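Second opinion, please. Please look over this fold, written as C-alpha cells:

===
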Amino acid sequence: MELNSELRKVPNTRDYAEDRADIFVNLIKILLSVQRTDEALRLAKLLCEQHIQHGFYAEAASALLLVATDLTWDGLAQEKEQLYMRIVNLFAKGHVPDRAMSLLHELQLQYEHVADYAGAAQIAERQVAILREATEGASTFATFYYSVTFSGGGAPPELRDTKYIYRTHERLEAFVTSLKRRYPAALVNSDERTPPADALRM
C-alpha cells in the first residue's frame, strides 16, 4: 500500500506523532471499509500504544474507538465491552471526561438491556469516580484549542491549504514551538489577512 510506504518515511518521534497517526487512521478506515476488522483492530492497538508512548492518552482512546464503534453488541459484545472500558480509562487519564462519560452511558444502557444490573451499578460507580476526578483536576489540566491553517510551499504537500483544530494542554508559546520543530521551513503568522507564502496561520 502507498500509505505503508508513507508511514515508513515519517520519523517515529513525538514531534511527528500526529503525522504518523494520520496515516494510521487512513489505513484503519480502509481496512474497515473492506470489513477487515481484525487487521484494523491490530493497527488501532499499535496506534494506541504509539500515542501512549508520547503521553497522548485522549488520542490513544480515539484510535481504539475507530474500531470499537464498528463492532456490534450482538456478535462481539465482550470484545466491544473490553475495548470500551480501556477507552474510558484512557479518556479519563487524558482529561476528557465528557467522552468517557458518553461511552459509560452507552455501556450502562447495554447492561440494563440484558438485565445485568450488577454491571450497570459498577458503571454508575465509575461515572461518579470520573466526575470526581474531573472536578478535582479542573484547574490543573486546562485544555486549549488552536486553529491552524497550512498554506504555501513551506507546508508538506498532504497538508497544504488545509485547516485543523488542535486540542492540547500546551499554552500558545509551547504549542508554536512544537509546530516549528516539525515544520522548520514554515513561518508562523497570526494575521489571516496577509499570510506569507509559507505560513502556519493561527
